[in-house]
UniProtKB/TrEMBL annotation:
It comes from Parascaris equorum (Equine roundworm). Its EC number is 2.6.1.52. It catalyses: 4-(phosphooxy)-L-threonine + 2-oxoglutarate = (R)-3-hydroxy-2-oxo-4-phosphooxybutanoate + L-glutamate; O-phospho-L-serine + 2-oxoglutarate = 3-phosphooxypyruvate + L-glutamate. This is phosphoserine transaminase. Belongs to the class-V pyridoxal-phosphate-dependent aminotransferase family. SerC subfamily. Signal peptide: none annotated. Transmembrane segments: none annotated. Pathway: Amino-acid biosynthesis; L-serine biosynthesis; L-serine from 3-phospho-D-glycerate: step 2/3. Keywords: Amino-acid biosynthesis, Aminotransferase, Pyridoxal phosphate, Serine biosynthesis, Transferase.
C-alpha cells in the first residue's frame, strides 16, 4: 500500500481486512468493476484470492498420503485453526502438547529436523543477497536500530506498573510485533478503544490487535523509523499519565 486517503502507511502499516478503510476499498473496487464491465445487480462479484484460511483445507486435501495422517506442530492460534480444519480430511498427530494461551514456543525435539533445513534456507538467502560480507554490513546498520525500537516500547510497558501488559514470555518476545493490553493483563476495552482513537488522531493507524486476541499491537517493521517509534512511545507515556487512575 502506497497511500490511502493521504495517511502515511509507514506509521504502523497493519490494516485489517475487516476494517472500515478496507471495506471502502472493496466496495469502491466492486462499484468500478460493475461500471466498467456492465455487471448487472442480479450477479454477485466475488474476489477469490484464495489465501489465509483457504489453505487450511487445501493443504491436507492436496498433500495427504495413503495413510491419511499428518503431524501438526501447533505453536499458535493459526496453526491450531489449521489442524482443526484438517481433522475433517485426515488424522492429526499433535507434535507438541497443547497450550493456551500461546505465549511461548515449544522446545525442539529430535523429530523435527528443522535445523538442517533452516540452515539451508538461510545459506541460500545469504548467497542470493551478496554473501557473508553483505550480511555483516546489513546487520551492522540495522541490528542496533531494531533493538533500540523494540527496547523503546518494551521499557515503557515494563515500567508502567501494570498499566500496560505484554502477555508473551520475555524469552520469546518479538522485536518486530509487540502486542500489549491496557489497564491490566485482561485489558480494559474502554481504555484500549480510547488509546486507538487517540493514536489515529495523531496519524498512527493499525494499532488494534487481532480480533482473536484483542488488545494493541505495534508492528515495528523496517520501514518504521526510530522517530516514529518514539512518537508512539511518547503517546503511550502521555496516555498512561492521563488515564492511570482509571485502571
Amino acid at each position: 500500500m502506497i497511500n490511502l486517503h493521504s495517511v502515511d502507511p509507514k506509521i504502523f502499516p497493519e490494516m485489517s481486512h475487516r476494517s472500515k478503510d478496507f471495506a471502502e476499498v472493496l466496495n469502491t473496487t466492486e462499484k468500478l468493476l460493475r461500471e466498467e464491465m456492465s455487471i448487472p445487480n442480479e450477479f454477485e462479484v466475488l474476489f477469490l484470492q484464495g489465501g489465509a484460511t483457504g489453505q487450511f483445507s487445501a493443504i491436507p486435501l492436496n498433500l495427504k498420503n495413503d495413510k491419511e495422517s499428518a503431524d501438526y506442530a501447533i505453536t499458535g492460534s493459526w496453526s491450531s485453526k489449521s489442524a482443526l480444519e484438517a481433522t475433517k480430511y485426515i488424522n492429526i498427530n499433535h507434535v507438541f502438547p497443547p497450550q493456551k494461551p500461546y505465549v511461548t514456543i515449544p522446545d525442539e525435539t529430535w523429530r523435527c529436523f528443522r535445523r538442517i533445513y533452516i540452515t539451508k534456507l538461510v545459506l541460500e538467502w545469504i548467497r542470493d543477497n551478496g554473501g557473508v560480507n553483505s550480511l555483516r554490513e546489513r546487520n551492522q546498520v540495522r541490528s542496533p536500530l531494531v533493538m533500540a525500537k523494540a527496547k523503546c516500547i518494551y521499557e515503557i510497558i515494563s515500567n508502567s506498573k501494570g498499566f500496560y501488559s505484554c502477555p508473551v514470555d520475555p524469552k520469546y518476545r518479538s522485536l518486530m510485533n509487540i502486542p500489549f493490553r491496557i489497564g491490566g493483563t485482561a485489558g480494559d476495552d474502554e481504555l484500549e478503544n480510547k488509546f486507538i482513537a487517540g493514536a489515529v488522531e495523531m496519524g498512527m493507524i493499525g494499532l488494534k490487535g487481532h480480533r482473536s486476541v484483542g488488545g494493541i499491537r505495534a508492528s515495528l517493521y523496517n520501514a518504521i523509523t526510530m522517530e516514529e517509534t518514539m512518537k508512539l512511545g511518547e503517546y503511550m507515556k502521555h496516555f498512561m499519565e492521563v488515564n492511570y487512575s482509571n485502571h
